[in-house]
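Box 4.2: Ligand-aware structure prediction
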Amino acid sequence: MSTHFIGNRRVAGSSGETIPVLDPSDGQVFAHIARGNSEDIRRAVAAARAAADGGTWGRLAPVERGRLLRKLSDALLAHHDELAHLEMRDCGKPVKQAIADATAVARYFEFYAGACDKLHGETIPYTPGYAVMSFYEPHGVTGHIIPWNYPMQIFGRSVGGALAAGNACVVKPAEDACLSLLRIAELAVECGFPDGALNIVTGYGHEAGQALADAAGIDHISFTGSARVGTLIAQSAARRHVPVTLELGGKSPQIVFADANLDDALPVIVNAIVQNAGQTCSAGSRLLVEASAYERVLEAVGARIATLKVGPAVLDFDVGPLIRASQLQRVEGFLADAKASAMRSIAQGSIAPESPATGFYARPTLIADVPMEAPLACDEVFGPVLAAMPFRDEADAIRLANGTEYGLVAGVWTENGGRGLRMARAIRSGQVFINNYGAGGGVELPFGGVKSSGYGREKGFEALYGFSVMKTVVIRHG
Ligand code: NAP
Ligand code: MG
């Protein structure tokens, strides 16, 4: 797989250099990918430009575009097992999670296939003697920088939406997780995607990623990743006056009132922090509990966390490994800080004996009495660590919920409908779930952040507006 995918062909990188690919379950190298550079990006952008500017892709009727996306969706479903296996190896995803991700990317393409020919503009009332109409047109060539935690899902929501709106795409996956996307590009060609509609350049973020963000010929950038790199991307885009969508991190609260139905809430609360080993932008990583129910909820959540087992992806334990050694060290750093403080460690899951010592395994952990100013309360851990704290009343819950730099997702658990809605309106975040929580789910649901969680929306129909530019045409007919 040590090739890029440019102009419907696998092509060797211009430098000939490669990057080793590790299996997080055992820490061993099992493949290599091409180390892309600015020359590879230049070639990919040229292929995409040719596709968009009068190429077959650019001239395709929306209904035909939709049919191609639908064909790809079917091919993704037909190959879901193979794709899931690639991500199990590449990202350490347990079997069930890998299959869910492979199924989700097919669903994204199904959703966007149906939307291709439904993106219509308007006629606008204006001065007598004039007719005005608006068109949603593609930007042209869109760049997509994708992180390692959900490569297929984020490809689906970002590239799926951009293709549906008629753009040609250049994709830079994270160097830790490219393999499934290279395979998807091959499937797209088998489905009949025209030359240059979809291009993938692998490599390091500071090389290939930065080159993509700086590339002349890119008309829009969709970035999903950390707030730090999001700033760099926005700066690059600003120099060329190119619009960006930033899908950044989160520190999303799960807010439990004393009247909540705990039987319903418990499995959801725990899953929202351990899904994908906590490496989820919308992980429910803060547990805010009404003071009168605090100890009761800690005990119940802790009991559940204590039963969780961590182990190799292929054995499909509750939790898989983290992506790489540095991520494990980061998570262990947060736990060491907690241990050295007055915070209470309530419960931890266990590492299964089948786990190789060279893999990157972190135990799911519930830490209580986390002060709002502690890094564990405000920084993204990106591991299976749940930080709990009590609140007094609705106002206090809102203050804590809004008390970080992030604003991506929130969950509210209460049997009081009015309170649920009041909370939802007062919380500053892109999504709020009442009596449920969707860490990453919901193809149809517009998704994105406020504050340092970013701006712009992907998923749902809303994404198509971001991947389009509106043109207004004014006719004087007398
Ligand atoms: P990251 O370091 O920001 O990397 C994200 C992507 O950017 C990768 O493809 C990376 O490539 C690339 N990149 C790194 N430096 C770059 C640069 N200077 N110029 C251009 N591209 C560059 O983030 P991460 O640590 O991989 O991912 C975790 C973060 O992503 C978390 O903060 C998480 O919350 C966020 N995330 C957000 C969402 C969302 O939808 N809001 C979804 C998933 C993840 P390399 O990895 O190859 O260096
Ligand atoms: Mg990998």
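In the box above, the bound molecule is NAP. Residues 95-115 form the longest helix (21 residues).
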